[in-house]
Amino acid sequence: MKRIVRIFALVLSLALLTVPAFADSTARTLDEIKESGKLTIGVFSDKKPFGYVDENGEYQGYDVYFARRLAADLGVELELVSVDAPNRVEFLTSAKVDIILANFTVTPERAEVVDFALPYMKVALGVVSPDGALITDVTQLADKTLIVSKGTTAETYFTNNHPEVKLLKFDTYTEAFNALLDGRGDALSTDNTEVLAWALENPGFTVGIETLGSLDSIAPAVQKGNESVLAYINSEIEALASEQFFHADFEATLKDVYGDAVNPDSLVVEGGVITAE
Known about the structure:
By secondary structure, the chain is an alpha/beta fold.
């Protein structure tokens, strides 16, 4: 009997060791980040022009430009970690990254589980579709297939407001846009800034609905309660307004994509203060 008990205890201990750790981990404070000499930021690797990996294997984009400045001003090395829309919250709660800078739209639901800093961009939803069957009004999507990425505001908006639209969901933006190219859906919805950029680079597709839903803000996010890192980000956003940093970011990372199709003031937020265009 004792031998059986010992075997059972051993099996149980081994099983506990192999169970994935889903419990939340405590995020690093600003002092701990400074001491380590490295700031870890989660960004997209496939959402051009906001966060993507270029042909040389280097991260680029509007979010990445800001990430580099945050690390430089803190005087530490920057480590960029690729995230997907569905796992942005998990990467914060599990302390896999210190900050998320992955085109993260502020919503009341998300604000319950992460802390958002001041906004640095504003955005609404848009819908892109083939020129031969252009969608110009949301009513045209009834009983049609709309492609969305999981964990995005587009998924939430259409689930809550348009149950008549069939949603085809993907984990990554690359998969979603490839599905549109392959004709697996009638249209695709995500941030209007993203669909506008994608349509400009993909002839045969047009953003027939440029603004849908409410005007939202994009902001950095940290683990809930990480006050020191949150305060640092906010102080940076406020201080960078004096040099119009995010307009410079737009010029460096977005201007070549959008050309004259997008007014920088329709997207850029300086000093964390959202103003009319």
